[in-house]
Amino acid sequence: xxxxxxxxxxxxxxxxxxxxxxxxxxxxxxxxxxxxxxxxxxxxxxxxxxxxxxxxxxxxxxxxxxxxxxxxxxxxxxxxxxxxxxxxxxxxxxxxxxxxxxxxxxxxxxxxxxxxxxxxxxxxxxxxxxxxxxxxxxxxxxxxxxxxxxxxxxxxxxxxxxxxxxxxxxxxxxxxxxxxxxxxxxxxxxxxxxxxxxxxxxxxxxxxxxxxxxxxxxxxxxxxxxxxxx
Length: 230
Prior knowledge:
five-stranded mixed beta sheet; 4 helices
């Protein structure tokens, strides 16, 4: 009986110590869990900051792309409008020059009037024939009414055939091309009264063909005087 009483007393004395240790372990576990949770929270905060930065960058890139898209669309609309206006101008001039033999085209921003030598000069000659003078009268009316103050480059071109027979004895195709261009300018300024200060001159001889000089037809295409309207 005495032994049992001592055992019970010892058990009663030991019970609070066990509870204290259990409580301490529980607190340590909770501290570890709290520390882990705080570490996880810091990692999530860092990830959130990274994502926020990426979102901000994507928004900035999106805004830039939107602005770029609008700029491209505006440029396209402007180019389309310019092309339509250019095509309308070419069509109108083609209609006005119908029957003259003068071709009309655009080279970038430059309007080109093409006068084939077949309607302007006889072979090897720099003297305007009657058809050439008639065609240039129509051209001069257009230049004076539609392009006042503009600059006109008159440029002569030939094929690559060497000059064999000519009463003027041209030294080269280049010399012939320059003289033909000057003949056109003289006629338009002196006879047709287009202001001389609007004209510039150039001769290219055989060195700026429209097509290869491979046939009679292609050589005829290359023999021409062009009036470039800037």
